[in-house]
Amino acid sequence: MERARKLGIIVALVSGVVFAFSLVSLMRAIEAHNERADFPFYSFEVLDGRELTWSGRDITLTDFTDDEGRAFIKLEYGDLVIDIPVREPTAKNLPTLGLYNEWAKVLAMAEVERNDEGELDAIEGTGRMLIVTRRTPEGYDSETWGRVRRKDWTFDYYTLETDGTVTTETWRWPPSRHESDEQRASNPIPPLGERTWQYQAAMHVIPALSVPKQKFKNTALWYENVGPVLPIAGISALAFLFGLGFAFSPRKATSATYEEPEQQAPTR
After folding, report:
1. Over the Cα atoms of the chain, what is R_g?
2. How far, in Å, CA of 42 to CA of 118, rounded?
3. What are the φ and ψ backbone dihedral angles of 206, each rounded to 5 degrees?
4. Which of 13, 173, 215, 224 lies 20 to 30 Å from 60, alpha-carbon distance?
5. pTM (2 decimals)?
């Protein structure tokens, strides 16, 4: 038992030292990552009106269906008119765009930064107005299989520029880790990148029950940033606890010697 106790003390001491050094190294790696990380932050405001103004120009949004039964939102931005394909709503031209909640949104966004008081302020010149729509894969019911086949979703972005033009771009949902390099190369639509404004804007047109957990790779605790320090710290912490358990475990109880009591003479 004494041997196990001494071994536990040695394990606790060694693992404690390793844990201390690894913890210091981990904190330095996290600090270095935060110093070189320069991720932009964005604020978004959802605008559900059908008559808006941007950069001194009027914006009008109207629902219509063409002769082939395809649904569109007609965007009138100043003198420019663009038809935006959308999923047909249950009712047309209501006062707001609420029926497009999971399919199309008008967003006012800007890049923000913290001021000296720790509050977020918009960076001058970064504001923009855009419309983002989500499309499910062709051939699948948008309310059933199309709803769950997230890897096949595509997102269309219509950015209303200050010069009166509209810039369009299309992105797809980030591929899963099971997608091969050949599959990624064969798809002409680029995947959404982590922390981009396109990725964050796409979150506004995703069904509430389908919003994914945002597990970004480029974080302070990602293996590529801290290396083996994090698992070493975890293993050494467990070893330290096991060592303490052996070092301070209660001693085994010894069996007491039984002594037969003396017999007394019976009293009369």
Report:
1. 32
2. 15
3. -105, 135
4. 173
5. 0.68
| Angstrom distance (rounded) from CA 97 to CA 61 | 9
Write out the H or E segment, with its range, that includes residue 21.
helix 2-36
Summarised one tens digit per residue, pLDDT across range 157-193 is 999 999 999 999 999 988 776 666 676 677 889 999 8
Q: Are strands 154-160 and 120-122 parallel, antiparallel or unpaired?
A: unpaired
Kind and range of the H or E run holding 3: helix 2-36
Angle at 86 between CA 81 and CA 89, to 5 degrees: 115
Amino acid identity of 31?
E
Cα distances from 41 to residues 113, 123, 182, 219, in angstroms, run: 7, 10, 33, 15
Six-digit token pair at 101?
């909640």
Question: Cα(233)–Cα(25) distance, rounded to whole angstroms?
Answer: 9
What lies within 8 Å, CB to CB, of 194 at 6+ separation is 174, 216, 217, 218
Angle at 191 between CA 34 and CA 35, to 5 degrees: 5
Cα separation of 233 and 70, whole Å? 58
Distance separating alpha carbons of residues 104 and 96, to the nearest angstrom: 12
Q: What's the CA gap between 25 and 227, in Å, rounded? A: 10
pLDDT digits (tens, 9 = 90+) for 74-86: 999 999 999 999 9
Burial class (CB in 10 A: 0-12, 13-18, 19+), 87: middle
Rounded distance between C-alpha atoms, residue 66 and residue 84, angstroms = 12
